[in-house]
Amino acid sequence: MALRGRFAADFPGLAASQLFAIASDIESYPRFIPWCRSARVLAADGAVRRVDNHFGAGPVDMRFVTRAEADEPRALSITSDDGPFRSFRLDWRFADGHVEADYSIALRSPLLQGLAVFAMPEVERRIVSQFRQRVEALHGA
């Protein structure tokens, strides 16, 4: 069964396009996405990018490829069924002063799925906190 959730944050004074630019700068993910060791665009075709990802913490080390599809400046959808994922979907949405994201994660390993259930509240908190720090670093907001 997939793990589902949502996180959101407000950024008064910032345009949707500014918030979209941060989330769509995939190769900068190691700077603000928890446990992201690297994210590299392998191919781009218009609004769609294929991305090589490396995430890890402690003994958990995962590499996988995602598909990122942009609807600038309103949305960014990231999906995968590669590596540890039976299915992965992260749908970012942007409005002036607001970011929210819904996710759905189903991992191949029951052990990793159990760890994900336990860890996701902290992951959500860190994503929002580090996204906020990234906004402040880039826009001083």
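The record above closes out task 2.4. Task 2.5 opens with a second protein, given below.
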Amino acid sequence: MENATQFIIQIAVLIFSVVVHEVSHGYAALALGDKTAKYAGRLTLNPVNHFDPFGSFLLPLFTYFTTGFIFGWAKPVPYNPYNLRNQKWGPALVGAAGPLSNIFLAVFFGIVLRIMISYSLVGSALFANFFQIATFIVFLNLVLAVFNLVPIPPLDGSKVFFTLLPYQYRHIQAFMEQYGFMLLLAFIFFFSNLIFPVVLFLFRIITGVMPVF
């Protein structure tokens, strides 16, 4: 595919994936008793309602033209943890809903890829472009899921981690919440390469092949 077409397809896949991610947070919170996202008009797949100028436009533009791979996020869906019926596990469930939605998308399109490979549709001109798009959908959603499960605030994994953290270690939570942004930047610059071996491993398990773009 040409670069312009490839960029449009990748940005479309990214926007769809991050919107599903955020809407999943909102519906999980709603199911647990918090209507904040509903009142904010965020329980919709309309990308306009979830647009973040930096995460949904500037960052994807920058990452695509510097690395060839697009990455970004949508505006976080608001929720009030004090409205959740389950005060202990509620925040963890809301936090996990986003990455789980990306894993669901990856598994669904991974099954589609397996079917295409089984029926030898990969080499067909009719299905070649779709196979490439589905491959990117699986890969990107795995990246989003694995990255968001890193237990550093404000990423979703931190909500799960803090729920499991014993009470006597709550000072760790306070420290990480205070310096979360700096810790996240340090992770992105020095340790983000650790994500991709995990993503490639999961991709191989789900699809049976290695990603080729």
